[in-house]
Amino acid sequence: MIALTRSPLAGILFLVAGIAMFAVQDLIIKQLSATYPLSQAMVIRSLVAMPLIYGLVLASGDARRIFAPGWGWLVLRGVILFLCYAAYYVAMAALPLATTVALYFSAPLMIVALSVMVLGDRVSLPRWAAVAVGFGGVLLMLRPGSALFDWAAVLPVLSGLCYAVSMVLARLQGSRHSAAVLAFHGNLVFLVGAVALATLLGPESAGSVTHAGLAFLTRAWVMPLWQDLALLGFCGVIAAMGLTLLNEAYRIAPSATVAPFEYTALLWGVIYGWAFWGDWPDAIGWAGICIIVGAGLFLLLRDPATQPA
């Protein structure tokens, strides 16, 4: 990979490949969410990913920095990311995949707002306007007050908020910790958090729960079929490989070049949702998706950190 350093095209390809891999993970988890609980899926995924991510830490030469000063902030960031992905997966079990992904991409809008409140960044009027328009798209997709409103639609927005907070924390940490160390702590918290979630909810089955998202959260553990166990384990491989691809993308290419391609996740959400569940956004859904994506791309392309001096 060293030979590809500073290659924008290679960075784009790495990022698109990483996003495609994580889209497969979303597909697997949504497919199995009607049978297994969230905590069980996350435990299996994290156990498989742990040695792979630790291998990345060793390869980066940062094994001694896993518990370097400031690691407590990494644990806090891991807890926030655990809440982020737990909310995302619960929503994904109940909502069309494209809707979940689109609402999650409200995160760039929240990052702008948090950067002002926490980091003291200055934001231009056009970027504030983009944030306002983007949240209008979020409200359009949420449809509050209508018969089509589902409380689970709030969860991907909450997930986006948690992701935004985790990104601000990562920025506050600066360059003190490598991406591999960040990933290690995140995965460790995922494992501990999933076990705690299973313990808190207890062994009782959620057989009387009819909402798909709530059932995914509260369902009792079951003995998995070997093929399902393999799929959940593969999610751990995806987590390690996908993270490596995304990190490499941002290492070898400017963020302004590769970041807009994060939105290819929406393409996979629409394709998989239609192919496996027959979901297709209606006119209002498409309008909300276009508004959120347009606002997010505007913010990414107008980020002062990515503009030439």
Helix content: over 70%
The CA-CA distance between the termini, in Å, is 29 Å
Q: Indicate the radius of gyration in whole angstroms.
A: 19 Å
Please state the overall shape, judged from the principal axes of the Cα atoms. Answer: globular
Main sheet overview:
none
Poorly predicted runs are 305-309
- The average pLDDT value, as a whole number, equals 82
Can you characterise this structure?
The chain is mainly alpha-helical and 309 residues long. It has one domain.
What's the arrangement of secondary structure elements?
Blueprint: H1 8-32, H2 38-59, H3 71-94, H4 97-104, H5 107-117, H6 125-142, H7 154-173, H8 179-201, H9 212-218, H10 226-252, H11 255-258, H12 264-277, H13 283-301
Helix pairs in contact: 1-10, 1-12, 2-8, 2-10, 3-4, 3-7, 3-8, 3-9, 4-7, 4-12, 5-6, 5-7, 6-13
Summarize the model shown.
With 309 residues, the protein is an all-alpha fold. The protein has helices at residues 8-32, 38-59, 71-94, 97-104, 107-117, 125-142, 154-173, 179-201, 212-218, 226-252, 255-258, 264-277, 283-301.
